[in-house]
Design goal:
Helix content is 42%, strand content 22%. With 409 residues, it is α+β, with helices and mostly antiparallel strands.
Length: 409
């Protein structure tokens, strides 16, 4: 089988508003971020399949015919491998990898997802092609920022393309194949437009892969990583928001490890003890989510109408978004899901007139800070420098980044 090399990228995500309250039936809004994962799949002529996880300094190499036979046996014999509980069935493939001790469980998840998607997407191919697949990411792993979903979306996109299940044949035309067997690539990558059907198929397989890692995912992460932009989630229903502005943010990792399960269960105990009080707090967070969606759409319209300068309406809307961030963070503190590290970073950014809140489960993890238009570069440099000096990891990025993208190279 001959094909051109492909490169796929997908964004990470944050919860803008609604974390924890969403468990109690309130709406949450999530948005993509400018940190992305990239997968590059290149054909080879060595009768091998190689997976390189650059961020972990880990690699796996299998003989293509042996890999194909083993994967088919696994997927045909035991459907339980398609769930988190069945992930141990992929141990044979993981054992053939060079894995450093650090974060080995995360690497095992990545290998299992690769094997699962490879076998599922290419199951009808008579002969598995030889290729190398290289994974590189700027998304922090295990921080609630959608790193596994971005990986699954990129991987699904690349494999579906090579298998001929998405993208027109023109993109993989015979005229471009002379360079592919040797692994050489074209000098000018060609960005390919993905249809709604393509995206739906990518999203489907990304969700199936997420089940291996998370058991019963909500579908938020894979949807955001596939489609980009923003979406709302309530009682199992996902709605995409098409009219949102790109907002500049500082993303901050406290580097404090937290247990999402323990945070949720602890909050549930407090809710059961004082249901009336906590229900009111959840209602307030739900109202903040609703108001933020209104503000985002108004800001999109205001900025679309602005020419050279921001309008007064835009300034007012940014102030409203900042107030909603502050209110939500205070409510999350009241719920008992914040952390000293999060309180500290909020205090640091407040000194510079900026507004921050945790994102995700809390108890450490990550937070974001809204950067409003007109913020001077010195202030931005000072606040990021102080946060870094406090031991936090900081990224200057944005919200609303595009979803999965594909290039033929």
């Amino acid at each position: 089988m001959r094909f051109r090399a492909v490169k796929a990228t997908a964004p990470g995500k944050i919860i803008l508003h609604g974390e924890h309250a969403v468990v109690y039936g309130k709406k949450a809004v999530a948005t993509s971020i400018g940190l992305r994962t990239t997968v590059t799949l290149e054909p080879q002529a060595n009768d091998c399949v190689t997976l390189s996880l650059l961020n972990f300094n880990a690699s796996c190499k299998w003989k293509q015919d042996e890999l194909q036979e083993d994967v088919r046996k696994l997927l045909d014999a035991d459907l339980s491998c398609r769930t988190q509980q069945g992930s141990h069935l992929f141990a044979k493939f993981v054992d053939q990898c060079t894995i450093p001790d650090v974060k080995s469980n995360l690497i095992k998840d990545a290998v299992s997802v690769f094997v699962f998607l490879l076998g599922s997407i290419m199951e009808d191919l008579k002969s598995l092609p030889s290729f190398t697949l290289e994974v590189d990411s700027s998304i922090p792993v295990g921080s609630g920022l959608g790193s596994s979903a971005a990986y699954s979306a990129c991987l699904s996109t690349a494999l579906l393309t090579v298998a001929g299940k998405i993208v027109s044949q023109k993109a993989m035309s015979d005229a471009s194949l002379d360079c592919s067997v040797s692994g050489d690539v074209l000098t000018t990558p060609e960005t390919v437009s993905l249809s709604s059907e393509d995206l739906a198929l990518i999203n489907k397989w990304s969700l199936e892969a997420e089940k291996l890692v998370h058991g019963k995912p909500s579908g938020i992460d894979n949807s955001i990583c596939t489609y980009g932009g923003a979406l709302t989630y309530q009682d199992g229903v996902i709605e995409h928001l098409s009219r949102i502005p790109k907002l500049k943010i500082i993303l901050i990792d406290t580097k404090v490890v937290r247990s999402t399960k323990n945070l949720i269960s602890g909050l549930r105990e407090r809710y059961q003890q004082f249901p009336t009080i906590y229900s009111s707090l959840f209602d307030a967070i739900g109202a903040i989510t609703e108001e933020s969606c209104v503000c985002l759409e108004k800001l999109y319209r205001a900025e679309a109408g602005a020419k050279e300068t921001m309008t007064t309406d835009s300034d007012d809307l940014y102030r409203s978004l900042a107030k909603l961030i502050d209110l939500n963070q205070k409510l999350l503190v009241t719920l008992g899901v914040s952390h000293n590290s999060l309180d500290k970073l909020c205090s640091v950014t407040a000194k510079y007139g900026m507004h921050s809140k945790l994102t995700g489960a809390g108890g450490g993890g990550c937070a974001f800070t809204l950067v409003t238009p007109g913020t001077c570069e010195k202030s931005l440099g000072d606040v990021t420098g102080e946060l870094a000096n406090q031991g936090f990891e900081v990224w200057d990025t944005c919200l609303g980044d595009p979803g999965v993208t594909l290039m033929i190279v």
